[in-house]
Design brief:
The structure is a single chain. By secondary structure, the protein is α/β, with parallel strands linked by helices. The chain has two domains: about 10-95 and about 135-235, Ribonuclease Z/Hydroxyacylglutathione hydrolase-like (Metallo-beta-lactamase, Chain A), CATH 3.60.15; about 245-300, no CATH class. Helix content is about 30%, strand content about 20%. The protein has eight helices and 15 strands. It has a seven-stranded mixed sheet, with no helix packed on it. A six-stranded mixed sheet has the order 8-9-10-11-12-13, with no helix packed on it. A two-stranded antiparallel sheet has the order 14-15. Strand 14 (about 295) and strand 15 form a beta hairpin. Helix 5 (about 195-205) packs antiparallel against helix 6, helix 6 crosses helix 8 (about 270-290) and helix 7 crosses helix 8 (about 270-290).
Amino acid sequence: MENGILMERNEISRLCEHIFFVPGENRGRFPACHGLLLKGNETVLVDAGVGEARIAEIDRADRIDVLIVTHSHPDHIRHWYLLEDRVIMMPRETPDSVADLDRLGERFMGSADAGKEWARYVRTFGVRGVRKPDRRYSDGEVLELGGCRLEAIRAPGHLTDHYCFFDRTTRTLLTTDIDLTSFGPWYGNPEADIETFRDDVKRVMSMPYERVCSSHRMPITGDASEYFEKFLESFSRQSRAVLDLCDPPASLEDIVAASPIYGNGLADKFLQKAFETTMVKKNIEILLRDGSLEERHGRYVRT
């Protein structure tokens, strides 16, 4: 244990003064995510997706006072209820539907029926609706918690209520689901926006950081430009994959069936089809607008 922080099997590592990296179970892959633990006058956990056992262990070793939820995706709220009696902070933009999984699913899937199927799926790995927060934060607000001065940076391209954080004291940047993974950007909910997402990436990569943490990869110390540039290139890679499927002409259903985004790698095929359809449609809209595609009789043709 270091400064009251559980260090068993080196699962939690100190990044700098006041900030510890908490690896999520399953190497931080969905339905888990990595988190940060902040230690100052209070102990703060950023996101509740690191794993039920891990949260419980940390809490026994050093009681968690505050939970900051970065956004309402299930891998980030997953085990919030272990800290139900603590201070819970959420974005100002998070709608009340986060309290009801069926309503949250309708928001994420675009229809009530699909939302119920989404809710069924996330309940299988322990997700529950989140109670009303004790406090909400907004873009540009500086949260003085856990020995840090966290600047809240809204990055809504991924999700309307998605936030990153920059600690002005240690220059630690949490990019959350600008996750810098090889999968690339995920914008599978109706409210996500590709062009806004690109702008969000450029905004956070311009911060004067000394280290970068994301929700789904290990921390990067020093210059992370290469990782940001590769992530930005993934937008183009996904777009090209959709475009390549339109020569010869293809319907939306044809393109989705070919799975240019997921590569048919998601186990739940209902959800894969729903998310793939949303992401393909968002790419098609841009390709039509920039003249790379034309629509002819319900099929998309590369120009």
